[in-house]
C-alpha cells in the first residue's frame, strides 16, 4: 500500500470528522452566498449606479486577508462556527454576485425584444429568457466561489470551528507531517471534486444552441 494511502487509512477516524465539518462549513457558506447573491445580482442588473457601488464594496472586502477578517469578527461574534461561516459567506458573495449581474446584463437584447413582442411580462422575461441564458455564467461563479471557499475554510480551525484545518494546524504545531498531509489531501480532493461536479452542471444547464 502507498505510504500516503496507508497514512490516510490510519488517520481516517480523525479525517472523517474533520471532513464532515469542512463540508458543512464550506457548503453552508456557499449556499447562503447563493441565496443572497443571485437575487441581489438580478436586482442590480437594472441599477447600474448602485451595482458599481455594491460590487466595489464587495471587491474591497475580498482584498482583506482572511486572518485579519477573522480578527475583526471575533470581538463581535466570538469563536466557533458562527464567525467562521460569516466570514466565509462574505467571501463567497463576490464571484456569484458579479457573474449573476454580468450574465443578466449581457443577455441578447434581441431575445428580450422578441419576448416583449410576444406579450411576456417582466417576470416571464426573467424566468423564461434571462435566467436560462444567464445560468451557465451564474454556475461558473458558483463553481469559482465553492473552490475558493473550500480552500479558505481551513482557516476556520484557528477560531475553533473545526474542519480539515484542525489537522493541518495541529500537525504544524507538533511538527507532524502526517497530520498535515491528512488534512491537506482531503481538502484538495474535496475542492477538485466540487469543481468537477459544478463544471458538469455548468455544461448541463447551457442552452443547446450555445454548447
Description:
The protein is an all-alpha fold and 211 residues long. The chain has one domain: MetI-like (MetI-like fold), CATH 1.10.3720. It has helices spanning 3-10, 12-44, 48-62, 66-77, 81-105, 109-117, 122-152, 165-174, 177-204. The longest helix is centred in the N-terminal third of the chain and has 33 residues, at 12-44. The chain is elongated and about 70 Å long. The model has no long low-confidence stretch (mean pLDDT 88). This is Osmotically activated L-carnitine/choline ABC transporter. Residues 19-198 form the ABC transmembrane type-1 domain. It comes from Desulfocucumis palustris. Belongs to the binding-protein-dependent transport system permease family.
Task: Offer a few descriptive terms.
mainly alpha; elongated; transport; 0% strand; 81% helix; 211 residues; MetI-like fold
What's the total number of strands? 0
Overall number of structural domains: 1
* Name given to the CATH homologous superfamily: MetI-like
The CATH topology label is: MetI-like fold
Order of helices and strands: HHHHHHHHH
Fraction of residues in helices? Answer: over 70%
Count of DSSP-assigned helices = 9
CATH class: Mainly Alpha
The CATH architecture comes to Orthogonal Bundle
Beta-strand proportion: under 5%
- What structural category characterises the helix and strand content? mainly alpha
Radius of gyration, CA atoms, in whole angstroms: 20 Å
Shape: elongated
Mind describing the biggest β-sheet?
none
Distance between the termini: 43 Å
Arithmetic mean of pLDDT = 88
In the predicted model, the low-confidence regions spanning at least 5 consecutive residues are none
Protein name: Osmotically activated L-carnitine/choline ABC transporter
Membrane topology: Multi-pass membrane protein
Family: Belongs to the binding-protein-dependent transport system permease family.
Subcellular location: Cell membrane; Membrane
Amino acid at each position: 500500500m502507498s505510504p500516503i494511502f496507508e497514512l490516510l487509512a490510519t488517520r481516517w477516524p480523525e479525517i472523517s470528522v474533520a471532513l464532515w465539518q469542512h463540508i458543512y462549513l464550506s457548503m453552508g457558506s456557499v449556499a447562503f452566498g447563493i441565496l443572497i447573491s443571485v437575487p441581489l445580482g438580478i436586482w442590480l442588473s437594472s441599477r447600474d449606479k448602485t451595482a458599481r457601488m455594491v460590487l466595489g464594496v464587495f471587491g474591497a472586502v475580498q482584498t482583506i486577508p482572511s486572518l485579519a477578517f477573522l480578527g475583526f469578527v471575533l470581538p463581535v461574534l466570538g469563536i466557533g462556527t458562527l464567525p467562521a461561516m460569516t466570514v466565509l459567506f462574505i467571501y463567497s458573495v463576490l464571484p456569484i454576485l458579479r457573474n449573476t449581474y454580468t450574465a443578466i446584463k449581457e443577455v441578447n437584447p434581441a431575445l428580450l425584444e422578441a419576448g416583449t413582442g410576444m406579450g411576456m411580462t417582466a417576470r416571464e422575461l426573467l424566468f423564461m429568457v434571462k435566467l436560462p441564458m444567464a445560468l451557465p455564467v451564474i454556475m461558473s461563479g458558483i463553481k469559482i466561489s465553492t473552490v475558493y471557499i473550500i480552500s479558505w475554510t481551513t482557516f476556520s480551525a484557528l477560531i475553533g470551528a473545526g474542519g480539515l484545518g484542525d489537522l493541518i494546524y495541529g500537525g504544524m504545531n507538533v511538527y507532524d507531517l502526517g497530520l498535515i498531509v491528512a488534512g491537506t489531501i482531503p481538502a484538495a480532493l474535496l475542492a477538485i471534486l466540487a469543481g468537477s461536479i459544478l463544471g458538469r452542471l455548468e455544461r448541463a444547464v447551457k442552452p443547446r444552441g450555445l454548447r
